[in-house]
């Protein structure tokens, strides 16, 4: 017989589990994300800094090393990822509970796949509000060395200095630069992320209620979720990265779209997609494994 559920207790649990999951995933993902952001920034310049993904990896390692290059600015993204993923799982599960209550169902009942997709999109919209400032500071920090690599007297700004500069220039709204693109990415991406995961786990469960997936099943489901997330609205992510790394304050969402299409065509929107898909498989797998196993541990 299914256990009675409490929305309040479940919400606290989702926040806690999401924080663990997000932090674990970000540690694995971050070096790949650094290369992706640098490739996206590079292709927005009149003369790109890198000829390929491999070239970006080589130059980053040669000029900055592992810690200062690939892991530059990790602290803020870890906090952001913890908040992002906890918000994702919290809002996704809360949305499902609200739909069940609205339809007069029990909290232990299941929803249709279409209803879960809507809940996934809702979770992405909620999460984008929290995520945008963290993404903005992270992206600016990741490309700061590139903008000043020919200046021998350059002293790298700290993360608080970058955030403070954005606040001074535009006020509190300045910290949400690129929010539209982030919302589009998170809405479509989260819908696919949860949708792919639920579909694959449902396939393995084969109709069994309260099925506990095995490690390899979680890995496969997580990998499919990550690939779906990044393939869905990657062009929005490219626009977001360029908006957040470019110093031109007059740039808007549509101006960036037109600029990319005019200079690089459709392929310009997919700069960095290779390294992004490569990172999404282990990252998303680890996130769902850590989430599900920690959940099992708390419920036992």
From TrEMBL:
GO annotations of cellular component type: mitochondrial membrane
Family of the protein in this entry: Belongs to the mitochondrial carrier (TC 2.A.29) family.
UniProt protein name: Mitochondrial carrier
InterPro entries, per the entry: MCP_dom_sf, MCP_transmembrane, Mitochondrial_Carrier
Top-rank taxon: Eukaryota
Keyword Cell inner membrane: no
Solcar repeats: 9-98, 111-203, 213-297
GO molecular-function term, one example from the UniProt record: L-ornithine transmembrane transporter activity
GO biological process: mitochondrial L-ornithine transmembrane transport
Native source species: Pichia californica
Membrane disposition: Multi-pass membrane protein
The entry's keywords: Membrane, Mitochondrion, Repeat, Transmembrane, Transmembrane helix, Transport
Location of this chain's protein in the cell: Mitochondrion membrane
